[in-house]
Amino acid sequence: MTAPILAYEKPIPEITDLTKPFWEAAKRNELVLQNCKTCRKYQWYPRYSCINCGSRNFEWKKVSGRGTVYSYTIIRQVVANSPAFQKDIPFVVALVDLEEGVRMYSNIVGCKPEEVHIGMSVEVAFAQVTNEVSLPKFKPTASKG
Ligand SMILES: [Zn+2]
User: Fold this and answer.
1) Residues in the chain, pLDDT under 70
2) In angstroms, what is the span from residue 21 Cα to ligand 1's centroid?
3) Average pLDDT across the chain, whole number
4) What is the bridge-based pairing of β-strands 42-43 and 58-62?
5) 9 vs 85: CA distance, rounded Å
6) Distance separating alpha carbons of residues 96 and 18, to the nearest angstrom
7) In what order do the strands lie in the sheet with 42-43?
8) pLDDT of residue 143
9) What per-residue confidence (pLDDT) applies to 79?
10) What pTM was computed for the model?
11) Residue 100 CA to ligand 1 centre (angstroms)
12) CA distance 130 to 57
């Protein structure tokens, strides 16, 4: 048993049997998604059955981590019950369309909020927040946004 190396005040994802492979990969800075072994579609978020064909036969596959911003908002004010987010203001919450065809809800980091735009190319950037949890966030791709 090791002591936490980081103090993290924000909510931490609940890791369940269903989501454990995702969070274990995230700790290795790898983005994985459920891939249906029957119809080969990816899906996000993790579920017990395929939203396309109903199969319960999945494997977790490492994906590119590349995508584009579908939509976003800039958070400039927090509500009273989430003071831990106050110091991050302003920050961007976005919907990112991954190359593999799923839409993921996350933050855009590594640029000014005003630089974020719909259609911007982004890539995953993991943020380790505790010993057990690394959160997938997205940053502008190295080439250009
Ligand atoms: Zn399927």
Assistant:
1) 1-6, 143-145
2) 19
3) 93
4) unpaired
5) 9
6) 22
7) 42-43, 32-36, 58-62
8) 66
9) 81
10) 0.90
11) 14
12) 31
Secondary structure E strands in 6-141: 32-36, 42-43, 58-62, 66-75, 91-98, 103-108, 121-128, 134-140
DSSP 15: P
> What pLDDT, on the 0 to 100 scale, is given for residue 4?
53
- Ligand 1 centroid–CA 38 distance in Å is 5
145 CA distance to ligand 1 middle (Å): 33
What is the predicted pLDDT for the residue at 2? 54
Q: What's the rounded Cα separation, in Å, for the pair 141 and 145?
A: 6
Q: How far is the CA of 42 from the centre of ligand 1 (A)?
A: 8
Strands, E assignment, 14-90: 32-36, 42-43, 58-62, 66-75
Taking the CA atoms of 72, 77, 81 and 87 in sequence, report the sign of the dihedral they define: positive
C-alpha span between 114 and 96 (Å, rounded): 17
Q: How far is CA 29 from the centre of its chain?
A: 11
34 alpha carbon – ligand 1 mean position (Å): 10
**Which of 17, 12, 9 lies closest to 135 in space, CA to CA?**
12
The type of residue at 133 is: V
Cα of 41 vs centre of ligand 1, distance in Å, is 6
